[in-house]
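# step 3/5: fold
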Amino acid sequence: MISAESAIRALRRDLTVASLLKGLLVGAALLCLIAGPVVGSRFPLTLTVAAIGAIWLILSYRSAKGSSLAADSPLLIASGQFDEAEHRIEQVLRTFSIFRTVKLLSLHHLAVLRHAQRRWRESALLSEALLHQRLGSLQGLSRSSRLMLADSLMELGDLRGAHAALVGLYNQRLTLAEAMNLLAVQLDYESRVAAWPAMVQNLPAKVQLAELMPSTTAARAQSLLALAARKTGRDDWSTWLRRRAELLVDVNALVAERPLLKELWS
């Protein structure tokens, strides 16, 4: 089992080596093409360019194999096959790749796996490390990484860090899944800082979004909204949302996970 610290060190090392190697290969190829007419004898230079091209193709093939190996990791994590996902992700992280995207995606998959395993510290470390990288075409990963970082930091009790992670999402265009995740994390954060009026702002829209969440997440969101409605004197909403949550999960498990919800069923 690879640790978060080892994975981050491996990523930084491989990205540095890959950048230097790509620069060396491209520079050597350009030097050969420029020096050919000057030297006069093109045959050895042509062979050199062909050799550089072959090296590039071999490295690209190995990188493509690593990418295909890790492609199923999200499905494995979602289906609870954590050991198989761990094995594949570790293989990719320990194998050299010339492409940044392969390594960055694998680190993101590892962060998702650690989050699913409720290993909050490692998930936070991996998400934060990814956010410090130049993502390029993978810029969309920054949103899901911020959500995981905020959720993990809240589980660790770092509310200030969680708020800082959430702030970076408010002005971004989110997918439906990201909007649902943001709402769930935001409600969790606001309940911990007793921001009850903020929680019930635009309440109907939040309820509609919560209805689309998976049952456990939906029950927690609806329960938190019910508590906020109760705190702000909106008892009709509180009763209705509480009953919706009761249809989805065992409320004893819900209260055990979030003790502040005990007030709803006292």
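# step 4/5: annotate
The chain has a mean pLDDT of 84.
# step 5/5: archive (pending)
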